[in-house]
Amino acid sequence: MAEESPDSAYHSNGSSLEEEAERMEDEEQERLLSYWQSVGRGHQVDVPRDMAEPIQQLTRNNNPQGRQTIPFTLIQRKEKLGDLLYEKRQYEKAKWACIKMKEKQYEQSICLGFMKLMRYICEQNSSGLYLGITIPIVTIVHTNESQSEMTQSVTVAYYLPEVLQDEPPHPFDSDIIIEEWPSTIVYSRSFRGITNEDSIMREINLLAEILESPELCLQDTFIIAGYTNPAAANRHNEIWFLQRP
Questions:
Q1: Which residue has better confidence, 15 or 189?
Q2: What domain count does the chain have?
Q3: CA-closest candidate to residue 61, choices 123, 139, 126
Q4: CATH number of the domain that 83 lies in?
Q5: Are 122 and 188 members of one domain?
Q6: Does 148 lie in the same domain as 129?
Q7: One domain for residues 46 and 91
Q8: Which PANTHER family does its entry note (predicted)?
């Protein structure tokens, strides 16, 4: 019986290691996809199989050190008995990747919009590169004039990292539009938990009561800033009021 040469043993062992690594990679991808599909069902959203790779890539890169926070200038902090009521901030002119959604429920719109932006961030763009996470991901919402209910139309937006601001990669998805937003002053208040029509309207009314001059802000347009992904249970969010230009 012929002995196996060291070279053939090396190649055989190398191949089996590669196969094992590939198998583990596939299992991890399936586990993450299954988790997101489970969360999606809770929001009445189907997470398609082609999201498996973007989900895995985003999960691997989703560490606090790798996230870029959108820069702003703090103008004022309003406190009461040691509790922060709100912050007044200035955000400079910047480019954002935006997608308009109009699902039956707010949760469906932000989940589906976020998945489309994930594909853009995860190499489905003209650079072919992973673009990096910036926080928060924001959603522009609109209400009727009396601020008693939200409209269905929302815009989910991703701030382009500083290094991409001058020349943002083009999205492959034609629904994603690169917009330049003007310099804006916002009044921001934090809140935790799920974001839906009821919780958003509650936070809008609460901040309107706290502000000394809410009439200085837009009365029908607000921003929900999300610092954790829509799959998280106890999300960190902010409600932003936009000062009139």
A1: 189
A2: 2
A3: 123
A4: 3.20.80.10
A5: yes
A6: yes
A7: no
A8: HEME-BINDING PROTEIN-RELATED, SOUL PROTEIN
Place of tokens 């069902």: 41
* 97 shares its domain with 155: yes
- Expressed as residue numbers, the domain containing 134 is 68-243
Question: CA 56, CA 83: separation in Å to the nearest integer?
Answer: 38
State the amino acid at position 192 in one-letter form: R
* 127 and 239 together in one domain: yes
> Which of the two residues, 56 and 105, has the higher pLDDT score?
105
- 1 burial class (0-12, 13-18, 19+ CB within 10 angstroms)? exposed
Cα 178-179-181 angle, rounded to 5 deg: 150
**Which pLDDT tens digit goes with each residue over 111-137?**
889 889 989 998 899 999 999 889 999
Strands (E), the chain: 68-69, 73-80, 83-91, 94-101, 134-135, 137-142, 154-159, 177-181, 184-192, 217-226, 236-243
Amino acid in position 26: D
pTM above 0.85, yes or no: no
Instruction: Check: CB of residue 52 under 8 Å from CB of residue 149.
Output: no
Half-sphere exposure of 135 (CA within 13 A, CB side): 15
Please state, in angstroms and rounded to a whole number, the distance separating the CA atoms of residues 90 and 113: 26
Burial class (CB in 10 A: 0-12, 13-18, 19+), 74: exposed
